[in-house]
Every structure is written in C-alpha cells, then in structure tokens.
Amino acid sequence: MQSFLNRNEYLNHINTSFRFNKLNSPSFINNPLFDYNFMMSLDKKDYPRYLSIAYHMKTDKKLNLRHPKTLNEKIQWLKIYDNLPIKTTLTDKVLVRDYVKEKIGEEYLKPVLWIGNNFDEIPFDDLPDSFIIKANNGCKWHYIIKNKKEYINNKELIKYTRIRLNEWMKQSFFGWSDFETQYINIKPQLLIEPLMRDNPNEISKDLCVWCINSKPYMDIEGRKCAEEALRLSKILSEGFKFVRVDWMLYNEKLYFGEMTFTPSSGFMPDEMLNQDLYKELNKNLKLR
User: Fold this and answer.
1) 141, 132, 91, 137: which is closest to 114 by C-alpha?
2) Shortest CA distance to 281 belongs to which of 70, 125, 77, 111?
3) Angle (nearest 5°) at CA 267 between 266 and 270
4) Distance between CA 136 and CA 163 in Å, rounded?
5) What is the pTM of this model?
6) Is pLDDT larger for residue 79 or for residue 1?
7) What's the pLDDT tens digit per position in 151-191?
8) How far from 137 is each of 88, 141, 184, 185, 216, CA to CA, in Å?
9) Among residues 160, 143, 141, 273, which one has the least CA distance to residue 210?
10) Are 217 and 281 in contact (CB under 8 A)?
C-alpha cells in the first residue's frame, strides 16, 4: 500500500502533466488547484481522481469518497455523485428567480434592473447611483458600484471591468473551481441589481440556513426574520440532500440571496467543523 505523503511530497510523486495554480500562495486553500484549461479538458470519469488530488494537496488529508465521514468529505462526494441538473438551474442567478417565485413568491426576490451578456450594452444612464453587476454563472463574480458618476468618469476602471465581465461571459466557473460541477452548463449572463444596503459602507446582514433533506438548521437563532428564513428555506430545499439557503436583510425585510450546494467548496477549516452546528450537520447528513 502506498504510504501517505504530505503535500510537497505528493506534488513530486503524482503525474505532472497538468498545471497547478498558486501552490505557494497564502490563500492556497481558497484557490483552485488546477488551471482553467486543464479543468475544462477533463473527462467526467476522471473527476474523482483529480478531486482527490486537490483535496490531498490542500488539506494534507486523504479524501475518502467511498465512505465519507467528515462534512467536508461529504460535500466532495455530493459534487461528484449528486450532480442533479436542477442544481445547475438553481445555481444560475437568473434562472433561480423563477424557482423562488413559484415556490415562495416574487416578494422575496431582489429587483433586477437589467439582464444581458455584453458589458457595452449596459444602460448606465437608466441605472441608479449605486448598484451591483453580477455574473449569473460564478461565485463572487460581481462588481459593486457605489457611485455611478465617479465610476463612469474613471476610464481605467471602466476598461478593467469591461475586460473582466466579458471574460466571465466566455468562461465556466467550473474551470476556476475545485470540481463544483453544478456550474458546468450555466449559460452566462449579466444581471444588475440595486445596491441594497441599510448603510452604503457596510455589507448587508445575511442569514444562512443549512438544510438536510428539507430540515433547516441555523447557527444564530433569535435573529430578526430567523423563523421566516427557516420556514422558507424548508420549502426551497425540498428534494435535496444538502443545501445552504442564503438570505439578506434589508430595511427589516427578508430577501432571497442564493442556494449554495457546495459551501466553501468542501474546504471548511477544522475550527468551523468543530462547532456544534457543523457537528450536527455532519451527524445528520446521510448520503445513501
């Protein structure tokens, strides 16, 4: 049996025909291991092998996909073996709106100011002073505009965002992830929403509801709108083994954020996993 190698030893041991991303970066754990072109060239049958390599390299732990025991391992299993087509639809920041509207009502949706796929077609004259531009096909693929006038007058910033956003319209976030398969087939679009913040300089308060077979769990109970978030998350999570439903509080009203099927891509730190909530999630998440 092959002995267990640490990350550096493993790097010298495995096949080096593929390329790595930022192995020595301080934020290594938060970055994808393999580069974009290599990820997009892989056959699906090879996903388990290279996911196992990525997990080993990032955590110094061997990934047990046959009998996952930790919450992180179970999320890795879900990436490969529970990739339902509906997850792609609900990961799409545009298409998920129809699902939410049908399930719980349109009143929980944030307003949409524009949808398109080309930065140069954005109608800036018609937009409010502050807004957020999102790519529907990625995680944290967005730009926040706090002052439209300042933004429009900054030619360098305009140039930069045009390049980045139009790049995102030609890419799959899967290629920048660690095998988050729900992103593979999303048709890229841009959407613009108003910047909904009680204080423009502060991030809006979020509520995260973790759901296992439609049973909701929340780390902080007693927060405003918590009971409503739990009730609605139970409805939205019907039919899924595991999903986190994210909400935003704005003007004391609850708004749907997104459905997250692979939180932290299954690389949550040990100090998080040792908290009571995550121990309970792991105990109750049964994959088969």
Assistant:
1) 132
2) 70
3) 120
4) 16
5) 0.88
6) 79
7) 999 999 999 999 999 999 999 999 999 999 999 999 999 99
8) 9, 8, 9, 9, 26
9) 273
10) yes
